Amino acid sequence: MIEPRAATGLLVSALIRRIEAEGGSAMVIGKGDAIAGAVLVMLADRGVLNAIVERVWRFDGGHGFEKVGPADPNAPGAAGDYVARRRRSDPDLWVVEIDHREAERIAGEVLL
Hints:
Elements: H1 8-21, E1 25-30, E2 39-45, E3 48-57, E4 63-68, H2 78-89, E5 94-99, H3 103-111
Parallel strand pairs: 2-5
Antiparallel strand pairs: 1-5, 2-3, 3-4
Helix pairs in contact: 1-3
């Protein structure tokens, strides 16, 4: 059975609105396929990138986050290089940077 799902563009818009409503900031770094693109979320707090996570399908049901990217996302050029490589191999990929002290929690409430 195919599970209905919201379009990726709609989810990304909802995430941005939610982060901004809670006093944070959000920006689309790379726009992907509006219907079914994968999503990378760059999680920051006060301008410091803490992690990069990808929204993935869990075979036991539902979506989850998987940490991806460089071990130290704040190393010079590390996050940017990773994102550029991923977008070259998957042009449908969305990349969203969110900056909020509870970025991961909010992203999980919207995207998972």
